[in-house]
Every structure is written in C-alpha cells, then in structure tokens.
Amino acid sequence: MFNRRSFLLSLGTIALNQLLSGCGDSENGLDILLLKGSIPPQLLRLFRQQLSKTQTLSLKPLANLKELFKLLETWHDKDAQNSGFLPYLPLVNPQPPPVSDLLTLGDSWLTQAIQGQLIQPFEISEIPGWEKLPPRWQALVRRDNKGKIADDGQIWGVPYRWGTTLIVYDENQFQKLGWTPTDWSDLWREELRDRLAIIDQPREVIGLTLKKLGQSYNTPNLRDISELKSQLFALQRQVKYYSNKHYLQPLLVEDVWLSVGWSTDILPLLANNRNLKAVIPQSGTAIWSDLWVKPSLKTKESQLSDVAKKWIEFCWQTKSVNLISLFTDGTSPMIYQTPEKDIEKEIKNNPLLFINQEISKKSEFLYPLSKESQQQYENLWKEMRNS
What are φ and ψ of residue 324, in 5° steps? Predict the structure, then answer.
C-alpha cells in the first residue's frame, strides 16, 4: 500500500531524474556526488530556482557510503587510475565519474578519509553560517591530520543530515507482556530471552551496554568498567540474530520481538507496519551524520565556487531543514536552531525526528578511538561472540 509519504517519494524519484541532468561544465558550476535518498528532490528544485543562467548544478546519487568512499580512493590514486590493472573497456572496466566539488561521506568514514589524504579541509570562509551550527556538530568535524577530534583542528566536513540508533518492537507482543521498551536496560529483561535482533557492530553493542551502565559510548578504557563484561555476556544470551542487513526481517515475521538498528532503516518501515513502534532510549543513543566533504587529488587543491558555498548555506535554511527532516528518514543538524514555529507539525509531532532535548543531550557521536582502545573493543567483542 502507498501512503502519502511513499507517494510523494515516488513522484520525487521521477523529478530527481530530471533534476540530475544539469551540465557541470561552467566554471561557476557545482558537481555533487551524494548518497541516494539523503537530499529530497523538492530541495534540489528550490535550489535550482535560485541559480542564475550562468550557474549550473550537476548531481549523481550513489547507493551507499562505501561506494562514495571508494570513489575518493579512485580519484586520489591518479596513477593507479591512469595505468590501472585493466584498460578502459565500457561495461567491463568503466571509468569513474569526474572528480566532484562535493561528496557525501558518513562521519564514521571521516578519520579514514583524512588519514588517506582523500579529502581537503574547508576554510571557514567556504561555510556560510558556520557559526550557527551547533557546537556538537562543529566538534564532530574538527580533526587533526590523523583524523582525531581536536578543538583546534581543521574543518573536514559540513554536516547536513543526521540520525540515530533506535529500538523498534512489535507492539502486539509487548501488549501481551504488559509493558513497552523505553531504555537500553529493557533489552536485558528475562521475557526477551532469545527475542532480539541487533546490528552487527561492536561499537554500537558495547556502546549501548556502556550507556546502560551510565557510561559513554566513547569510553577509552573498558577495563575501568568492572560490570561491562558480565553485562555484555548477559546481553549475548538475549540476542537471536546479529546482522547489519537483515536485523529487521526477523521482526517482521515475528521470529523476534525487538530489533536495534539505524533510523534510516527503521523509519520507512514504520509507515507501512502499524504494529511496529520505535523509541529512542531515554539514557541516550548513538548518533550518525552525513557530511559534505571536498575530494582531494595529489596534484591539486581547490577552493569552492560561489555556487558551492551557496549550496552549503542553502542546506541549512529553514525550508531545507523541513524538507530534509520530512523526506530523507533523517534530521537536519539545524533543527534546534530553527524557530519552533517554523518547523512543520509533522516533524514536531514525531519524537523520532524532533527528539526530546534531554535525550538528545545524552546521545553521542561515535568518535574515533586510539589503537589501544580500539583493540580493547575488538577483543571484548570477539570474546563475547565466541562465548
């Protein structure tokens, strides 16, 4: 069945194909490679209306962040691209698209991109409205040359969309139990033994266990948390499936009663499955963000054009805040900077998009860890999964 949202998105797909046909040859043009579904067609149409006749916009959507990261690697390694293992043959070894001015990258890929010199930092002058961006988002993209969070670091990305890790559950099953999940601690309740499906991510699973214990997702030394190991092993007994791709299917067929996963997967599911409900845990959750980054080449550094700066600023305007939050299964980082009277009711009335401020403050980005800390997480994860 099609609801209003899916109908608008299907129309938007047709419109997007038309909007993506811009010619990017002008010196005052803008070429963007973006994550499919992270910018609504309605927003692109509005932006095109603001361009002059000499300004051009060319966009190409790619299916996932891994593809986008691979393009950064391809562009950067020009020697490998020019003298690659295979000659250029259409359909066999197709050439990559030309280097874009801006590209979508997830914050979890940012450290790797910086360390590999795949992207360039932004100058503050290239980011109109930077001072309006909430401090937590500014902190997310300020990094040193090794990709570590640094207060005095350079700006390596411009956030335009974010989302959360959610609990989604079968309301019918929980009505029989007489309670509904509200926080991470509920995952340990005896009634849910062998009834959970969770994303297969060490930082997420160990992190939510840390949140249950009143700790941070970014705890650097796991050995300091005496209860962590026993709690994590207890959670292991509750979980029936770990998967990054198929953690929702068991919920749909009632093989499990509760799943933990990403809002971009869960929000579309809620529209067509009335028996499913989702909640952001009261003790806070993990946050992710999609960013605009500047691709880097070994032989070239570039300054953003005026139309590129205009695009960055446009993505933070009130109309864009509403469109991104309504039609991309994510939220704009400017949502709390926008006067509440200017936010669409459909957003304000959705606690999964317009998140309670107290819960939002308790939620965290997954920051890069030191090698020693990362090894602790990996070792504990392997020990738990093999138990």
Answer: -60, -40
Residue of 191, 171, 189, 190 lying closest to 180 (CA atoms): 171
What angle in degrees, to the nearest 10, is found between the helix axes of 41-50 and 306-314? 130
Residue type at 105?
L
Residues 6+ apart with CB under 8 A from 45: 15, 19
One domain, residues 175 and 146:
no
Of residues 287, 159, 137, the one with CA closest to residue 216 = 287
pTM for the structure as a whole: 0.89
Residue 138: both structure tokens together? 């500014």
> Does any domain span residue 328?
yes
Maximum Cα–Cα distance for the chain, whole Å?
Answer: 65
Q: If DSSP codes are grouped into helix, strand and coil, which group holds residue 290? A: strand
Average confidence (pLDDT) per 10 residues, the chain, 387 residues: 37 44 58 96 95 92 96 79 45 74 98 97 96 97 97 98 98 97 98 98 98 98 97 97 97 97 97 95 98 83 88 97 97 96 96 96 97 97 93
Tell me whether residue 359 is in a domain.
no
